[in-house]
Write a structure and sequence with these properties.
The chain has 408 residues and is of the alpha/beta class. The protein has 14 helices and 16 strands. The strands form 4 sheets. It has an 8-stranded mixed sheet, sandwiched between helices. A hairpin with a 7-residue loop joins strand 12 (330-331) and strand 13. Helix 5 packs parallel to helix 6 (134-140) and helix 5 (107-119) packs across helix 10. The longest helix has 27 residues, at 298-324. It is globular. It binds pyridoxal-5'-phosphate (PLP). Pyridoxal-5'-phosphate binds next to helix 5.
């Protein structure tokens, strides 16, 4: 029995908190962090590749050069030099990005959260890939939006299926065109062009979330949606229906918590107002550190190392799946990124199977969590960036023998 002095907090919380829940993946990560487990669960980069010594030097250089300035409050929009660096990186003959088109955020996740805050009203409809990124669902669900899921195939979001849904007048389309989480698939060039012409015709905002785009191991890089849609406006930068989000989490380190939005100036202005209320600004020290690294050309040095290692891991996983998984299983063939999605025969419930897998020392994420409408019970997401190739071989062997027991 609750004593009279005890507060019943559940009666105090705002109604929208009923739509908040912990992420199944983040909860699972607590279990899978045990050293004896080979984990294919998290979307984690390989920690042993983090350039610790280089970061120590960069941190010292920042503090020597900027001193107290690097530890001070700073502008909500982000460090001017970091914004300018990003503007240069994203500019090309088709797209003219100015610093005013860039907002620095606390990881890509905050970018998605802020975009939800400025765009969405209760009851709004949002088109997205099914399955999709869990963090987006967590950020936007409390706004009381209705998600309109669209199936994906080997070429990503089935854009032709979006057309019918446009009759429901959605407020936005959320899409991860490169090496999607959880499927690892990439939106084809033809579909990119079709999506852009569709949103132009219907004046709908597209959120292009691209945390993995730089991690391409095979195939040809494709233009991003922002580039395909934007119209240059001289000194004003550009205008576009696309709001692009990026991050250093997957190419440098997630602990930095530095991401960004690139969008039309009006969008950046509104997002800046929302960010001011959320956290004043992204960590000044993290931004200085990121700038110190990328400004000195560190990514050109480090990215090839990452790509070589991750390509090897992806190949090891694809080879092991072919050798050890049941013949009735199928999986996506990612050209980059960190994930692939396995589909098993209909009777297999990957959520129910997880405890047995953990007991044998292997972790994955049951696919249902990423799906809307309760689909995907017979799917599982595998991360291929965190474990070493020998661990991948061992983990997939173990998981394959478990699956073979129930699939035959
Ligand atoms: C699709 C997608 N978007 C955004 C993020 C957020 O990344 P961060 O907040 O670490 O920059 C992630 C992280 O896993 C992701 O998979």
């Amino acid at each position: 029995m609750r004593s009279q002095l005890e507060m019943d907090w559940n009666k105090c919380f705002a109604l929208r908190t009923a739509l908040m829940r912990r992420s199944a993946v983040r909860e699972l990560l607590k279990v899978t962090a045990r050293p004896e487990i080979i984990s294919f669960a998290g979307g984690l980069p390989a920690a042993e590749l983090f350039p610790v010594e280089r970061i120590k030097k960069a941190l010292t250089a920042v503090l020597d050069r900027a001193g107290g300035q690097a530890l001070q409050y700073s502008a909500t929009e982000g460090l001017a030099d970091l914004r300018a660096w990003l503007a240069r990186q994203f500019s090309n003959s088709r797209l003219q990005v100015r610093s005013e088109n860039v907002l620095i955020t606390t990881g890509g996740q905050q970018a998605l959260d802020l975009i939800g805050r400025i765009l969405l009203e209760e009851g709004d409809r949002v088109i997205l890939e099914n399955p999709t990124y869990l963090g987006l669902l967590a950020a936007w669900r409390p706004a009381g939006v209705k998600f309109l899921p669209v199936a994906c195939d080997a070429n990503g979001l089935r854009v032709e299926d979006c057309e019918l849904l446009l009759k429901q007048k959605p407020r936005a389309i959320y899409c991860v065109p490169n090496f999607q989480n959880p499927q690892g698939t990439t939106l084809s060039l033809a579909r990119r062009k079709r999506l852009v012409s569709l949103v132009r015709k219907h004046s709908i905002a597209v959120i292009e979330d691209n945390p993995y785009g730089e991690l391409r191991y095979s195939g040809r890089a494709l233009p991003n949606l922002l580039e395909l849609d934007a119209r240059n406006q001289g000194a004003g930068g550009f205008d576009s229906r696309v709001i692009y989000t990026g991050t250093f989490s997957k190419v440098l380190m997630p602990g930095l918590r530095v991401g960004w939005v690139i969008a039309s100036r009006a969008v950046i202005e509104k997002l800046t107002q929302a960010k001011q209320a959320a956290d004043l600004h992204t960590s000044t020290l993290s931004q200085y550190l990121a700038l110190e690294l990328v400004g000195q050309g560190f990514l050109e040095e480090f990215l090839p190392v990452l790509l070589e290692n991750y390509r090897e891991r992806r190949d090891a996983m694809l080879a092991a799946l072919g050798k050890y998984f049941p013949k009735t299983a199928i999986w996506t063939q990612p050209e980059g990124g960190m994930f692939l999605l396995v589909t098993l025969p209909k009777h297999v419930n990957t959520g129910a199977l997880l405890p047995a897998a953990l007991k044998r020392g292997v972790a994955y994420v049951p696919g249902e969590a990423f799906h809307l409408n309760g689909e995907g019970k017979n799917t599982l997401r595998l991360n291929c960036s965190n474990a070493r190739p020998d661990q991948i071989e061992a983990g997939i062997t173990t998981l394959g023998s478990l699956l073979n027991e129930i699939c035959t």
